[in-house]
Prior knowledge:
Blueprint: E1 3-5, E2 48-49, E3 56-59, E4 87-88, E5 91-93, E6 106-113, H1 120-123, E7 125-133, E8 136-141, E9 146-152, E10 156-163, E11 166-173, E12 184-190, E13 193-201, E14 210-219, E15 225-231, H2 237-242, E16 249-252, E17 259-261, E18 264-272, E19 276-285, H3 289-300, H4 305-320, E20 323-326, H5 330-343, E21 348-349, E22 356-358, E23 365-367, E24 373-374, E25 376-377, H6 378-381, H7 385-392, H8 394-411, E26 417-419, E27 422-423, H9 432-441, H10 449-461, H11 473-479, H12 491-518, H13 522-539, E28 546-547, E29 552-553, H14 585-588, H15 596-602, H16 606-618, H17 643-657, H18 673-683, E30 685-686, E31 694-697, E32 704-708, H19 711-714, E33 718-724, E34 733-738, E35 741-743, E36 747-749, H20 750-756, E37 758-763
Parallel strand pairs: 1-7, 33-37
Antiparallel strand pairs: 2-3, 3-5, 4-7, 5-6, 6-11, 7-8, 8-9, 9-10, 10-19, 11-18, 12-13, 12-17, 13-14, 14-19, 15-16, 15-18, 20-32, 21-24, 22-23, 25-26, 26-27, 28-29, 30-31, 31-36, 32-33, 34-35, 34-37
Helix pairs in contact: 5-18, 7-8, 8-9, 9-12, 10-12, 12-13, 15-16
Amino acid sequence: xxxxxxxxxxxxxxxxxAFAGGGEGSLPISYVNPFIGTTxxxxxxxGAVCPNGMMSVVPFNVMGSEDNKYDKDARWWSTPYEYHxxxxxxxxxxxxxxxxxxxxxxxxxMPTTGELSVDYKEYGSRYKDEQASPGYYSNFLTRYNxxxxxxxxxxxxxxxxxxxxxxxxxLLNLGEGLTNETGAFLKQVSDTEFEGMKLLGTFCYNPQAVxxxxxxxxxxxxxxxSGYWKKQRPMTGxxxxxxxxxxxxxxxxxxxxxxxxxxxxAFLTFNTTEGEQIEVQMGVSFVSIENARLxxxxxxxxxxxxxxxxxxxMRWNEDLSRILVEGGTExxxxxxxxxxxxxxxxxxxxQDVNGQYPAMESDQILTTKGDRYTVFSLWDTYRNxxxxxxxxxxxxxxxxxxxxxDMYREHGWLPKWELxxxxxLTMEGDPSIPVIVDTxxxxxxxxxxxxxxxxxxxxxxxxxxxxxxRPDNDDYMSLGYVPLREQYDNSVSHALEYYxxxxxxxxxxxxxxxxxxxxxxxxxxxxxxxxxxxFYNRSLGYKHYYSKEFGTFRPILPNGQFYxxxxxxxxxxxxxxxxxxxxxxxxYSFYVPHDVKGLARLMGGQKPFIEKLQRVFDDGLYDxxxxxxxxxxxxxxxxxxxxxxxxxxxxxxxxKYFKNAPDGIPGNDDTGTMSTWAIFxxxxxxxxxxxxxxYTLTTPVFDKVVIRLDSDTWGSDxxxxxxERPSTESLYIREMELGGKKLFRYRISHEELVKAGVLKxxxx
Length: 764
């Protein structure tokens, strides 16, 4: 299958600004390769989507043929598309990007020709000539000689099929998809329009986290015939003899009312001429069929495929142009802009064009005046994604925080891993806290901070039996750690996440205490000050887990003794591991970003700390796809004279794991978290301590980076990072300037960065 990184010449794009880092007329979108991350468990896909859009239209190639390398049901597989597969069974509508559990990926739309078949194992096709670009995907179905193309608006999708002469079909399959849920209904509204619903959910083993997706599908040509299909249950005895469709797909050619079932679909048959194009529009909503139709009418009314595509491309270029780079190689620009593209997919909007959305963990339908966001993979994204959004897309980050607080109003809890109005409780910790704290401390304060503090205080202090986010809070509050009570209960991982959350909460309590004191509210100030001490002291509980025998963290049993026998490397390659989630002790033992100097003292001082940390990289103990250790390389810079190690390792990791290739992301992208790691390190700084508004500096990849800032938010319209390098091989920082003044520190605050306007590196 030939893949092409598509470069458009649409006339509308001539109006777009030139890209500062490329040749004449180059655009940021021309450097995006959507095929990056589509194998090696990256779980990204090359489908069409708008920035932070609800709709994505993705080639579905993970079922139906033994010729595929990876089938969605053959292993734990969480993507609708895999680069090495070859059997196409349609386009799925609304998908997840970079997510580790299978979900969504339904409403499969497939063009075919010749004799009608509605069994996906029979109607699927091999394909070639794949093309992908922001807002666009295309391939050619070799079995049918059909060219397929798709694009999207924020809430709708459009497909264009170029057919040969003869009998052609458009199939809508509601029985299959990536989701583990089943059940759907379908109604033909007219000769050219269908509407319906499909049930989705059970994400990451949560059987009650289910939700409906509503849709309206339209074609732009009157079909010669149309109807439904439904897979009939197997029958036995006389009953089987009387039913010719026993255990088979039954075609309904004269029935037009509603149909429902686990394995149903619709077909439309056309008599096409050579090269005839048929467009299919799909509107979706998580509220109602009426809203799906409203979304479709609003966002695609009067537009054809080319117009929808041009709009999507304009959206992407505008967003990607907020960061412009100069210098570097063509591959580095591709890695950078593709990473930025992936980071801007989730969280995505949930509300319809009328503002309606499904309330959190409720049957209610509410209305928002702004954007309501969903897909909060917070255990991943609290580490860097929201920090990037705060800096570059503050208007979106502010709405995401407001969405999180609205979830608290509706449900009584801040989100942990929210998905389309359902709390999946995936992963551990209390990850909303550092996101909200970081946002507020950096100056994005236009939300109800008192309500936020109430929500955070609740999860931090409520007993475990009543605590949705911290079910083991009794042990944590009374002992200062979480003991191992079951073999694989991830106790150490839980506690380390609580320490980070509590440290962030201590920073916020301290800031609110100072505010209260300035306002003359003495009693309130004293309460916040007491909270700050409480949560800060809690955050130091990590010391309980340190084992001098192994020099790593180690699970603790209920009797207070260390777990034994213990192997600090157990858990590599995601094998089950007592106390640790998806990793070994080495992946977690330096995850104390809020007290790096304290951890170093615990490990015997600076020298043994540095030696042990370097061993992580030298002995292959670093896992680039496991979030707790992704900031390890930046910890060297906390110690004077060791900063060069950060510069060396960040560059080495970038070169090794981030490439312009399908496996160019080191495992699961985790809704942009891995991509964001690359973005920050390529421009020269990284937020290594979630919740703390500071960055650690490292060597930039590019000669010049211009970040377009919101002047109303940051008081400046741009941040410039300049790098002078004697040669392309220059790596280590010789000196730095911030705002024209010599800089002798390798950690700077967010306020210092945005106020300075210019950060300059001189390399040697």
